[in-house]
Design a protein that fits this description.
Largest sheet: 7 strands, mixed
């Protein structure tokens, strides 16, 4: 059987670091994870990425240098994952990188007399191309924009290939900085797949941890577990038109970033809510946004949770309580990796690009038609 060794790279909205997965792809349908490396960003780089993505004042030179720096970090991650697997670089068929999103504008805005949309991911793949001497695929989202889509979510292509069942309806919830869900009906064709962003994933919890507990995230949900939910704050957070909007839809840091957490802080101060209770409420808020998403699509038989949020016990407990009739599982419980899932997905998207296979799913992005995603550098 024909197979290829490939590397997939992902840097998500949480700005935690670079996820790098070395996989074996057999005929584009079967994927085996060979090795995985997660390279965390230092505080200075993480703060700079948050600064630029948060619409703060910056310069073209700063964006250029950030892109070059991320390219260098991606190269080091690829070298490390090959070393872990004892894999010679000559055996790598291709590398696919999502890059790092610093701006995503799916809704048109007025600019110089025009109404325009766009998305921008940085992280120069040229150094990868030079070192590995193999094709590198990047910039996956823009082609879907051109076809009228929102450029997100893109992971459903891999989920359809890997998780489709002829016996049950399967939903896959990724909880990274932003939460996104893919629903694959029983015995679905690709046109039947629905996917969209459910709302904030870990983003608000992480921002609160940095603001109040001097840590990047709540490991295992331990801090949230010490608090209790505040009903008034929860109701205020859920009073958002995004959750009533029908899919396809997408969101990001531009909505659930610094200004949003500042409004949470003001509410907490006004109502004298302790920091642990706020974090617990933010945790329950994320769980509620996921549960509310089923009002649009119906409840699945099984919900498989991946991303960093799958490690948050408090969040997972809330999800199971809110969805008592759904079998809620983590990627690890079915033999996969929550942390590597998105990096693996972009390896598959890179495979599709190189083999000219359309990989955007119109039930996810809202595009007029499916397209081949990605730009290739040989």
């Amino acid at each position: 059987m024909n197979f290829e060794y490939a590397i997939g790279l992902m840097s998500g909205t949480s700005c935690d670091g670079i996820d790098c997965a070395l996989v074996k792809i057999t005929e584009g349908k079967k994927v085996e994870l060979i090795a995985f490396v997660s390279d965390p960003y230092d505080d200075a780089l993480r703060e700079k990425l948050l600064h630029v993505a948060g619409n703060a004042q910056t310069t073209a030179a700063e964006i250029l240098l950030l892109s070059a720096l991320l390219g260098d970090r991606m190269l080091k991650a690829c070298i490390a994952v090959c070393k872990q697997a004892n894999m010679n670089k000559e055996n790598i068929s291709f590398i696919a990188s999502h890059g790092h999103t610093i701006q995503h504008l799916p809704l048109a805005k007025e600019y110089l007399g025009h109404r325009l949309r766009g998305t921008l991911q940085i992280g120069d793949v040229s150094m990868l191309n030079e070192h590995f001497a193999c094709p590198c695929v990047s910039d996956f989202r823009v082609r879907d924009f051109a076809a009228g889509g929102m450029g997100a979510p893109l992971v459903p292509f891999s989920e359809y290939l890997l998780y489709r069942s002829t016996e049950k309806c399967v939903a896959l919830q990724n909880i990274g900085g932003i939460g996104n869900i893919t629903v694959i009906p029983k015995a679905a064709d690709v046109e039947d797949v629905i996917a969209f962003d459910t709302g904030p994933g870990n983003m608000l919890m992480d921002l609160w941890c940095m603001l109040k507990f001097n840590c990047r995230y709540d490991e295992g949900g331990q801090i949230a577990g010490r608090g209790k939910a505040h009903q008034g704050l929860l109701e205020t957070l859920l009073d958002d038109e995004y959750y009533q909007k029908k899919p396809p839809k997408t969101t990001g840091r531009e909505r659930y970033g610094t200004k949003f957490i500042q409004s949470v802080q003001l509410y907490a101060q006004t109502h004298n809510i302790c920091d642990e209770d706020v974090l617990n409420t933010l945790c329950l808020f994320t769980a509620n946004t996921i549960a509310l998403s089923f009002a649009h699509i119906g409840k699945p038989d099984e919900l498989i949770v991946g991303g960093g949020g799958a490690h948050n016990k408090t969040l997972m407990d809330y999800l199971r309580k809110l969805l008592p009739t759904v079998a809620v599982k983590t990627q690890e419980e079915i033999g996969f990796s929550s942390d590597a899932k998105e990096a693996v997905a972009f390896a598959l998207l890179g495979w599709a690009c190189l083999h000219r296979v359309p990989s955007s799913i119109i039930g996810a992005t809202g595009a007029r038609h499916s397209t081949v995603l990605g730009k290739i550098q040989y």
